[in-house]
Amino acid sequence: MRFDVLTLFPGMFTGPFSEGVVGRAMEKGLVEVRLHDFRKYARDRHGTVDDAPFGGGAGMVLKPEPLFEAVDVLKAEAGPEGVGPVIMLSPQGRVLAQALAEELARQPRMVLICGRYEGVDERVRERLATDEISVGDYVLSGGELAAMVLMDAVSRLVPGVVGSPKSTEGDTFSGGLLQHPQYTRPPEYRGWRAPEVLLSGNHGEIARWRRRESLRRTLLRRPDLLERAALSEEERRFVEELRREMGKPSVEGDGGH
Ligand code: 9D3
Q1: Of 81, 82, 219, 228, which sits most exposed with the smallest number of CB within 10 A?
Q2: DSSP letters along the chain, please?
Q3: Model's pTM, two decimal places?
């Protein structure tokens, strides 16, 4: 997996990518992150990459030339294989979710454009970017942290990056549910005991407990996720039972199921 990142702040990426899962994947050669400071493609000797918005108003807008020219160079280097999707990180984009990360993980490479200032010239969005992605409904100061979030989510889906395929399959959201509670030694700490079922060695009972705790927690914290989750008949019955216990009628706030 290769990421070409266009940014005015390449230094922001060094810390996060020198450690952890992505750092190790880069050492192993499974993930390659190429940082491109697009100020290099500014037209003037001052390295101007932004300008005042046409029509007036506050703030500055990223000029189109440095970004188009940076991508042109990548495209020329890439040849017929191409550079992959050209993704602009933007609060106006499709919100990143696990399904989108899985889609992107099938690509051999992609370009990530990190915006700064109040915005980016619309021609970049319309004529250069093939996709626009947001990481959620809150305001960041630029696209860099969003690009790092995307690269982390996508990299760990690349075969070999995370221990075993099992450990990504079991993740929250891959199953569409929140994770069940986890415990480890000691079985009792400050008088607080781990659930006896987990110490029982009964793997059938443990699996059933975990699935039910996942359902309980998802219903409590993220009921929106339950609507999209693939549940068995038994699981649906259990959720109905929980809803009644919680005093939540199933006809209210669940999309009518
Ligand atoms: C305060 C300026 N905003 C006016 C409505 C627009 C705005 C411009 C640029 C808001 C944020 C940004 C910088 N953010 C990103 O480049 C960004 C982002 C984000 O802010 N939230 C979630 N995902 C992303 S991806 C890129």
Answers
A1: 81
A2: -EEEEEES-GGGGHHHHTSHHHHHHHHTTS-EEEEEEGGGG-SSTT---EEPPTT--SS-EE-HHHHHHHHHHHHHHHGGG----EEEEEEEEEEP-HHHHHHHHTSSEEEEEEP-SSEE-HHHHHHT-SEEEE--SS--SSSHHHHHHHHHHHHTTSTTTSS-HHHHHTSTTTSSSPPPP---S-SEETTEEPPHHHHS--HHHHHHHHHHHHHHHHHHH-HHHHHHS---HHHHHHHHHHHHHTT--TTSSSTT-
A3: 0.94
